[in-house]
Amino acid sequence: MIPAAFEYARPDSIGEAVRLLSRGGDETKVLAGGQSLMPMLRMRLSFPDLVVDVGRIDELRGVRDDGDRLVIGAMTTHHDVMRDPLVREHAGLLAAATATVADPAVRHRGTLGGSLAHADPAGDLPAVVLALDAELVTTERTIRAAEFFRDYLQSALAPDELLTQIRVPKLTGWGYHYEKFHRVAQAWAVVGVAAAVRRDNGRIAEARIGLTNMAPTPVRASATEEALAGADATGPAVEEATRDAAEGTRPSADASATPEYREHLARVLTRRAVLAAAGPERTA
Amino acid sequence: MTTSSEPEIGRARLRKEDARLITGQTNWTDNITAPGLLHLAILRSPMAHARLDRVDVAAARERPGVIAAFSGADLAAEQGSLPCAWPVTEDIVLPDHPPVAVDEVRYAGDPVAVVVARDAYAAADALEAIEVDYTPLDPVLDLEAALADDSPLVHADKDTNRCFSYHQPCGDYEAAKARADVVLHRRYHQQRLIPSAMEPRSVVVLPVAAAGEYTLYSATQIPHILRVMLAVTTGIPEHKLRVIAPDVGGGFGSKLQVYGEEVLALILAKRLGRPVKWTETRSEGNLATHHGRGQIQDIEIAATRDGTLLGLKADLLADMGAYLMLLTPSIPILGATMFPAIYKMDAYDFRCTGVFTTQTPTDAYRGAGRPEATYAIERIMDDLAAELGRDPLELRRHNWIKHEEFPYTTVAGMTYDSGNYEAATDRAQVLFGYDELVAERAKRNEQGDIFRLGIGISTYTEMCGLAPSRWLRDMRSGAGGWEAASIRMLPTGKAEVITGTSPHGQGHATAWSQIAADVLGIPFEDVEVLHGDTKLAPVGLDTYGSRSLVVGGTAVYEAAQKVVAKARQVAAHLMEANEADLEFSNGAFTVQGSPEAQKSIQEVAFAAFTSHHLPDGMQPTLSAEHVTDPDTFSFPHGTHLCAVEVDTETGAVKIRSYVCVDDIGKVVNPLIVEGQVHGGLAQGIAQALYEEAVYDEDGNLTSGTLADYLVPGAPDLPEFVTDRTETPATSNPMGVKGVGEAGTIASTPAVVNAVVDALRPLGVTEIRMPCTPERVWRAIQEAKEASR
Lengths: 284, 788
Fold this sequence. Notes:
heterodimer, A: alpha+beta, Uridine Diphospho-n-acetylenolpyruvylglucosamine Reductase, domain 2, Enolase-like, domain 1, 3 domains, five-stranded antiparallel β-sheet, globular, B: Aldehyde Oxidoreductase, domain 4, Aldehyde Oxidoreductase, domain 3, Aldehyde Oxidoreductase, domain 4, 4 domains, 21 helices, AldOxase/xan_DH_MoCoBD1 (chain B), AldOxase/xan_DH_Mopterin-bd_sf (chain B), molybdenum (chain B)
């Protein structure tokens, strides 16, 4: 690894981290595990003056029960998120999607907050928090997931603002499924579908669907969510409702897929994800 | 010493080098350091093709920590031209290949300037201060367009992008075709591949300036060849140059090369009088380490209605890339005789045209020419079976060389010494559950299942064990193909085996120990194998082309026999017996009829060391050397069967089962064989489904990192079922055949055949490699359109 030179700071508290960030300005990067920043430094795609490593701030870690929601520290690693009993019980979709992120070594380093702040639409977790209507708490404010992801690799965070918590509404008892379509196990999703479904006597009472890598930001399959409300949880009904799953998306072209193919995948995978989510209840 | 134990040859021993490799208690080239070490960094062209109007390194020289910076023009007098050692035709076009471009860059990644600095960070930083003015020239990317009269030229001074044309007619193909009931023509594409060895390339040069001596460490497969070539290229006398390949982490052909960076590190260390190191980054390697494959194959097969093959024609366009490197033009030619494979036919016609493009040079990649040949013949055999409505295994059985017909000289003039295609295929069919899978496929097709089942076959053979020196001469190679070994028994009864092979993952330390221990009758643990250093192991031709066991291992075996022969003379003298009356087993000489009197080989070694009681005229010490120049190649073969499930909605392909039964003759170490087969399968499957070096229309490599160039890992691969039949080679004393490339050669067509087989009922006949989900999905859509 031969990055360009940068200053490095490892604050012990949120306050100190914010002071460092406000001092540094635009050319400061937060190191929140390193899943994405380290490769960018290594390939000289990023030239920060200062790297603020928030990996030793204990208060940024952990999961707690907060009534009708879970509060997850931004620096909780993927490994800890996917194994956490509270997450598995009340936000199974998040646990399931997190288990597909990268590989075990990266999951021990990478963090939920880091992944969200990086705002990569090909990352698995932005679409999940979007589908779950999570709230992202920063040192300044609380931002709804729907307003957090602004553009490709651009979040709503100001340069001197640190993401501290993710508040995830409990969807206890909902069915869920993360359908990740990728070419090799370690690769990003070509397309991913995060689906959570509230079932009611063989019908789908409510569905929340987030799409990975279908636009410069994660997006909700809103047309399909509406069409699914009240639909039978059967193959033909779900197929009908998921025909519009790619509506409103703006997928990119790359070596793995053309936009046309991504739209096709979005429809097929949304149907499969919803059917899997609406299937027999499972235990965490 | 009468411990009767099972023979060493054939034992599944754990590799003795692994403890060192796995714990990192070893030297990789990049770990090597020296006082005053300088670091080399290379500025590379961001363009596929451009004229260099100005290269200004002045600002880089002013950067902190920088010792020197040079353009290609600055180095022109001493950098020479990188060698091509195998000009395959008399009139081949051989362009100049400076390690750093002087006037023109010809691929994205072509070196433009170099910086030498006190640390790697300073060197990388200083690259950004180099100013270069480029005038873009037209890229040359398409093999067919490159041959058109109006094509832009990769090398303007050569007036053509045609590097060579090679033609090998065998029999009268047109006459055979005229007799045929069925003639099929297919076009197959071999995509470019990036070898992706685990360890990146690295070179360190330690000069002793006062003596004019240089020690060059390199992560190379070929320390011996590299030494010769560096001497020729740089003018540094060969005897003043020591080349060491320390532990090397994989190569797959990519380190069978004389690279510009090796030349540069050497001439810069000479010029600056200080140690110089260069280590590539992964993305730099994707650009600048040679690529593999890159072929368009026009294949025609002629047969009678009953499925008897009459003739085969192969006409190839082979992508050389921008320059000819060590073996570039020979790679497609190494497949020239292998398109007819295991099949009998009357006529065969092979043509190959080498084409220059403005892309990274190509050269050896695991299999080198034979995977391309095997892919073409095994694909078209499946297509022919479909055309004739025959079971593809039965069609092969109908045409292959029968066991009792060996040795057999093929239509292409290769004499296969041994083989038993029937045995390997019968075994594979049983392990695979062929009939059950055929039934399941039919059921799914009938039901219109979304997930279709496909069965792919590859009954391959290949030629390996490079190579008879006279064959190489006839093929215009610049070198021979022998291999050397020497064995010395030490005074305490231990043995050192010095081999000219240069392992980089193959396990020679273990396998050669087994061979030597077996012949000498000493414990496996008492053998040490020395390799990869031109001072320790001065004679050798290194490791590539599945040659090491067949050629180098045979040399070890023969050298050990010579040691025993001398030991027998000494023992007879010591025991006051006739040599002819001595028996040698389990490391001890005994006199026939009186087994109580014996001399162990260790005792003999000590006696040869003290030299107190040697026969008159015998030289002291117990050692021997042998150089093996093989008479012919080795021809491993086998039957690979692959079952895939294709998701017809998404195009995703999942390998459900993979069975291979390989015949590699006698086996020295079944564990090493298993490892070679697994790795080979992974790489062959990778070509079928995952990997492709992709250039955009401007000639930029868009698969420049491991995020875009998809190397599969364990989770992406099925559990392999491997087995062997054993038909000993008759061309070497141990009866062994090469195994390093067999898995790669066999597996690619097995997988693609399976994918196409799954989709044939939908009207799909061809999918280009790699069979990505989108390509598979599109093939299905196009077939649907066509059937409307």
